[in-house]
Design a protein that fits this description.
With 148 residues, the protein is an alpha/beta fold. The protein is 43% helix and 15% strand. The chain has one domain: D-Maltodextrin-Binding Protein, domain 2, CATH 3.40.190.10.
Length: 148
């Protein structure tokens, strides 16, 4: 008869451990995170605002600070995800957009940087900067904003 309470306790502990493991599954990292300089008061941005900022259809934040967008290099998976979800264009289509703008003398594209760390340094250097990095990037003091 003593074995029954011990067995019941053993099964209860095993069930508890199993349920703890199920809830402790790691979350998938986001494909990209949009970051701004920590001095920027913005906490959330509309997707359309970001699109206009990266295509330089607008040039100032609501605070009147100049917007300084920065891209990752064109072969980056993070850039591809950002371009498709935020700009709603493939990277090649964005490059075509900029070729037309350059040819007509209207504007130049945002700088293209090689790594997440380079984008983070740029965003920290310029108060009006906005960029994006991979979900795994160390943010080093930049501020993540929500995209609506």
């Amino acid at each position: 008869m003593r074995a029954f309470p011990i067995l019941a306790l053993t099964f209860a502990l095993m069930a508890s451990a199993l349920s703890a493991n199920v809830s402790a599954e790691p979350r998938a990292l986001p494909l990209y995170r949009v970051i701004v300089n920590p001095s920027n008061p913005t906490v959330a941005l509309d997707r359309s605002f970001l699109e206009d900022a990266f295509l330089k259809k607008i040039s100032h934040w609501p605070s009147d600070q100049v917007i300084r967008p920065v891209d990752l290099e064109s072969g980056s998976r993070t850039r591809r995800a950002f371009s498709e979800y935020v700009l709603r264009r493939a990277v090649d289509a964005v490059k075509g957009y900029w070729q037309q703008r350059i040819f007509s003398g209207r504007d130049v594209p945002p700088p293209e940087l090689d790594t997440d760390d380079d984008v983070i340094k740029y965003v920290l250097k310029y108060e009006g900067a906005v960029g994006y990095v991979s979900g795994a990037a160390e943010l080093n003091g930049t501020k993540v904003v929500t995209v609506r």
